[in-house]
Structures are given as C-alpha cells and as structure tokens.
Amino acid sequence: DVQLQASGGGLVQAGGSLRLSCAASRFTFDNYAIGWFRQAPGKEREGVSCLSKIDGSIGYADSVKGRFTISSDNAKNTVYLQMNSLKPEDTAVYYCAAGACRPRELEDFLYDYWGQGTLVTVSS
Hints:
By secondary structure, the chain is mainly β. It is built from no helices and 11 strands. The strands form 2 sheets. Strands 2, 4, 5, 6, 9, 10 and 11 form a 7-stranded mixed sheet that branches. It has a 4-stranded antiparallel sheet with strand order 1-3-8-7, with no helix packed on it. A hairpin with a 6-residue loop joins strand 4 (33-39) and strand 5. The model has no long low-confidence stretch (mean pLDDT 96).
C-alpha cells in the first residue's frame, strides 16, 4: 500500500511561513494525486490543496489561495505545501493523502491513503 509521511509543522507567528513535506513510498505520480487537508480543533477536516501529475490539476481552497503553494519533486516522491502569510486560523493538524485531485472538490472521500498529521500552530 501507499505510505505517506507528512512533516514540517511547527509553531510560527502570524505572517510567517512554513513548508510542509509529504514523502510518499510505494507510490507513483502516474497513479495518484496528492492532497493536503487540515483539521482544526473542534472542526471538521477540510481540503486545502491538491496536485495531480496525471492531468496537471492543481487546486486550492479559497481560504488559502494566494498564500499557499503546492509543488512536487518527482525524483524524491515528495509533495510540498509552502505556506506564507500564515494566520491564526490556519492552525490545524495538516494531513497529506493520495487519491484524486478535483480542484473544485477538495473532498476527503476522493483519497484512499492517508499519512499521519503534522501540527501547525500560528500564534497571533
């Protein structure tokens, strides 16, 4: 099965930046897209971004457009989420998942494999 390892979370002040990494094994970009999701305390999990090398799709939630950038390093089988201009409301556990990228439909049911989360805390 596909295995995913998310990393890069931490504590940052509002306005700061973090880069999350999602290292995938037993995985090929030919078969799966990668999505990033987050879950804040007391809230439902929400889609943040996705990237597909299969059809070139890239999608972002409205709340992160213009601030977050998803990218990949095929040689390393790694997908990154560069997060700039962070806000306290970005505080959450961030997860990466392998599945299908539908830019207008960042829904978790499209993803079959999930990594463990990495905590991002943005202080005001």
